[in-house]
TrEMBL record:
Species assigned in the record: Anopheles maculatus
Single biological process term from Gene Ontology: microtubule-based movement
Residues in Dynein heavy chain linker domain copies: 797-937
Protein name (Swiss-Prot/TrEMBL): Dynein heavy chain linker domain-containing protein
Single GO MF annotation: dynein light intermediate chain binding
Entries under Pfam families matching the protein: DHC_N2
PANTHER family: DYNEIN HEAVY CHAIN 6, AXONEMAL-LIKE, DYNEIN HEAVY CHAIN 6, AXONEMAL-LIKE-RELATED
Cellular component, GO annotation: dynein complex
InterPro entries, per database record: DHC (IPR026983), Dynein_heavy_linker (IPR013602)
Superkingdom in the source lineage: Eukaryota
Amino acid sequence: MPWRISLTDEKPKASKELLKQSSNKNTNPVSRASKCKKYQFISDYTTQHLADANGLEAILKEKGINNSLFYTPNVAPTDLNSNDHFLPLEMFDDWEYDTFNPEALDVWKNVEALAIFTPFTYWQPVQVVNHEPRSNYWEVNRKPISTSHRIPRHQLYLPFEDPYKFAERIVAAQKARETAENAIRFRFLCKHLSSGGCFAPGRALEQSIRRRTSEEVYVIFKNLYESYHIALAVGKHLKLDSTVVTKQPAISCIDSMKHTATPSVGAASNIAYLLDCFRRSTLLCDRNVFHALRFVNQECEMVRKLPLFIVANEMPMPLEEYEKQNVAQTSKTIKYLQNSWIERSTMHLHRLLSRIGDGNFDIGVSKWSIYSVMKLNRLVEQVLYRMQDALRDLLLDSTAAYVHYLVNDCSAILSIEEQEHYSWDGNLLDSPFEPKRPAVFYLMLEMGQETPYYSTEPSSFPDTLRYLMDDILTECHFIHTIEPSLMQSLTFAENLFLSSVGLLDPIIVRQREALLEYYQKSLLPLRAYAARYTAYRELFFTNVKEFIEQIKSADKSSSEIKEDIALQIRMRENLEHTVPLCIVIGPYWINVQPLREALIRKRLELTAALLKMLTEKLRLKTADVIGCYNTINERMCEKPVSIEHIYDIRAYMEDVPELVGRLEDRMRSILYEYEILEGFLHNLPDADFEQKWNALAYPRLVLKQMASVKEFHESEVDRFRKQQFADEAAFTASIEDINAYISKFTTLYDVSKVSEMSVEVRRLWKTLQELLEQGHIMNRRQELFEMAPISLNNLFELRTNFKAYQELWTVAADYLKLEETWIGNPLASVDLEGVRRGLQQTHDSLKDLLPLFRDQPQLLAVVEHFILVVESFRPNLDIMELLKCPYLEAIHWGQLAKEIGVKGKLSVDVGFDVFLEHGFRDHLETVRRVVVKAEQQRLEQEARWAEEE
């Protein structure tokens, strides 16, 4: 399987520790070993084995030592993928090659020797000046210039020591350095190989160790176990002995480095060749590839951590809001996957691979035949697999988290057996479907015209949640690969996409089925719970005004209204204890508070309306009682306009105490009804409260008012008595005036002024009647004042004498008005019976007046004149009767007009005055003949109709 490589740009920790340990060793006191092959006996310290530096360089070259080996590397980070030395040679210098003890012998002082300095090009003569025993550093002066230098021992050759032993000393240090550097490279290679758990302990071993030790011990063991097996795998890849590879130097100290055997001859002396083979057979042949894969791995790890769905929320949210947030989140993530991820990965690969240039990783390759055999092809394939692996992990983890978040572990819902009629059997407060984790979705229970309903249709949950998951899975199939954007010199197909998780993947199918099963079963208790609120529908839609009108139409008593109010209060309290504020059913957090408050508010409104209705009822009753009291007061306090009025008020006041007693009894019964309102702690309005106490205080006010009225009446009696004397004098004067005027008026008898005379007569007659009525009133007042009555005999006599005169002119005027209507109106509208009756009544009335005016010749002549006027109108009745014959038709009217000589159209709609003007009274026989002819023709026609019928 491909290895996952993780590289860093830091200097290897092994080299740092090596430097640190080497420094610590050099600070320790110098120890001397027993004599061995390294030891050289010097009998005379004045003997010189070499004369110049050329001889020493020749011996060193013979041993394979170049001056460049003395080069000390820089402190900057070293590339462990190269063959360059990165450890200083002085760390591996073996002090056991020293030929003498500098602390014991002073032969080295001011001795001329050979030394090599930076840049390590050649050896040159120096003079030894000083020595540091603890670090084995020597201070020398160059010749011929006196420049002081501080150099390690292996860079200084003393003339009295064996040059071949000195060369062996440098060769030993060189081999020790190569061994250490090869070990560091080997550890570096093993350290930066990510096994992905392939080399972890087996499950049985893991369980055994966990059972016998702690978790911390297992973690340490696991790291050691993986490191060991990775080392075996790398050694096998490098064709080294696996058992030897794992024994590479730990580089704990310099002494151990000196005495540790090399893993194998080939590995110790030919690590460069083995590394070259490793580079040829693996993609990790250049550090830029390491970094490129590392960055790709970082981008893939970022993708694995992307939030694809909303899987956490502090509070439940509506489905619409959840869908909206999910769409926004998934759109953002998909946009990142389709654009930013590809762009960033391509950018990292392009930036790092372009540094390599031509060769196996040339991103500018333009031929498919070359690209197919390049390591770049394998690298891109490796990146493709990594990206597909990251995408699959993202989708599987995200969908698992999505389903885990939505299916919030309610075993009661999963145990429901799907049935057509599922009912909620428990109370409305406790939910048997309480999940282990918080609810996800927010629903509000509302009341509909037919049934209760939720703010979101429950049946939309399964489909919406399924589509949210399936849509994102579908969109993840359209994420392009990095090949077209990385290698732009090659032509790729447009439909190259990363392989994603399919909709029919077994894991996705199981998750989808679990999600749908959970939410489809959750709909049963959800709908059953809402159905329980159907019982409150009638209350919810109750119209308060109509409810009160029904109560009013039933004309219930106050005790019955009291029972209704108590019922509403009990029902409200029942709602408070049986209807919850909210309830959780599986994944749904249902807000019942608005509906609960609406129902409670409706009960409160009905209670308040009943209390208000009872208050209004009591207000009307109390107002009626107060109205009765006010009526009594108004009746007593009426301002008297006459003495009769005073006596009427006094008679009424005798019954007032009894009336007040009855009203007090009524008010006591009303007080019992007020106690009903007090029992419900209902505060009366200020006006009603004032009205109630006014009604209770009215009896005392009425009785107090009676005393005041009686005092007032005493003063009014005196005033009316004085007024009576004045009225009596004015009445006597009025009688005298009317008597004088009538005496003068009765001497008039002009028949041409009938209308004016009749009007004046009627006025005088009305005045006489008023004077008589006034006289009767004054006589009654005289009795109330206990005074003598006024004589009305003169007034009665005047009325008797004036009566005949009044009838004469009245009858005459009325007849003339009737005659005008008979003549002036259309003939068809004239009632002949009314005319006949009016003539007879007028004639009789005038005949009756003849005896009354025998002593007055002028007035007698007036009566006779009007009798002649009446008699002269009687012949017109015959003409009118003939002309109103119903059988006269247009032809007959035309014949009459022609025979009488009338130039115009005649009909029954013409006024009788027209007929009088044309002299129809003189052609009575002609009219009668035409009428008889019309009647005969009518009879003949009716006979024919009868025959035909």
